[in-house]
Amino acid sequence: xxxxxxxxxxxxxxxxxxxxxxxxxxxxxxxxxxxxxxxxxxxxxxxxxxxxxxxxxxxxxxxxxxxxxxxxxxxxxxxxxxxxxxxxxxxxxxxxxxxxxxxxxxxxxxxxxxxxxxxxxxxxxxxxxxxxxxxxxxxxxxxxxxxxxxxxxxxxxxxxxxxxxxxxxxxxxxxxxxxxxxxxxxxxxxxxxxxxxxxxxxxxxxxxxxxxxxxxxxxxxxxxxxxxxxxxxxxxxxxxxxxxxxxxxxxxxxxxxxxxxxxxxxxxxxxxxxxxxxxxxxxxxxxxxxxxxxxxxxxxxxxxxxxxxxxxxxxxxxxxxxxxxxxxxxxxxxxxxxxxxxxxxxxxxxxxxxxxxxxxxxxxxxxxxxxxxxxxxxxxxxxxxxxxxxxxxxxxxxxxxxxxxxxxxxxxxxxxxxxxxxxxxxxxxxxxxxxxxxx
Length: 439
Fold this sequence. Notes:
Layout: E1 7-15, H1 20-31, E2 35-41, H2 48-51, E3 56-60, H3 73-94, E4 101-106, H4 112-122, E5 126-131, H5 135-142, H6 153-176, H7 185-207, H8 212-230, E6 233-236, H9 239-249, E7 261-263, H10 278-291, E8 319-321, E9 327-329, E10 335-340, H11 350-369, E11 378-383, H12 389-397, E12 404-407, H13 416-422, E13 425-426
Keywords: Endoplasmic reticulum, Glycosyltransferase, Membrane, Transferase, Transmembrane, Transmembrane helix
Organism: Brugia timori
GO cellular component, one term: endoplasmic reticulum membrane
């Protein structure tokens, strides 16, 4: 696909600051001299490299009123759909430049897929969907729906092939043998009973109670498939998701003649995430210490477990500057474990807390037997905001570990990549409702 022109619009029905993948797309296009406009919510700070880029501008969307979330699920879903559709259409047609490329993040695909497809067709722009999950699977988990009654394209292909083979075998038998004989009375009765049983089963399935929300989720499944087939290009995070889209909705794979779906893995760019040098790590830790609060734990004198004597103001819990002015890492430094979370049910942080407790018990035994084989102290930093944060903070307060210290600060957007670059161990407990995001 050839991108024409120099205007591109990226749509995120979510917080732009928490959508790094779309920010990476924007930066990549802007570095190729495309003028990029990112449409979305601006609840949190955006990375400076995006915010101050001369070719990138942000178009803020107005969030739905808070009272909508307090309504019954079906009414909240409908009102949020209408609100977001109206605001997004007004933005795409009256607040942005004439685009030749519209890329939308899915999920959420309701109603962004419809609005972006409509704008792309009217303005003759390329319509691209960036898939990192499925909207229907997210809603299915949100409303605790056990199963949805949908048909996949792969199942229909198999059924059609079986029907064709059965028809072919009947024709062959009729032509070749002409030896078919009439069914006996018993065979006719058995066949009639089977047909009646299948009819009763279908009627019972139709009579099963199905909530309105479940029916909406089932329709959203077909909604995503329809717009996926309408897109000029579908970008998937894994090959497994691309294959699943083909099996579910007949969205073609990437080939030399028909470009419909391609895989672009989540890889952090070098301008944002990288391993820090000892000098950079030392300066960043001093910066965190200046913030105060929980970060004062990085002061060498504030950790009696390690029995460190602070010899200069340029010394931290992990590094120090020697007499020659070079930064050195301490031999008795703790391991820095970093994890980020949205504190939702998608991430079971009980696994990490249980593992840290087990490590603390083993570390106590190792320090008693032989100091030379003593396990290191762990400083664990968990950053993020979300609904289950207070619950896990209560668990952390009652853990009382001797060889593990857990911090739960909220970092600035520009500090988060540096913290990741300082980490000795990184832990991600995020799971995907689609089951194909990390395969």
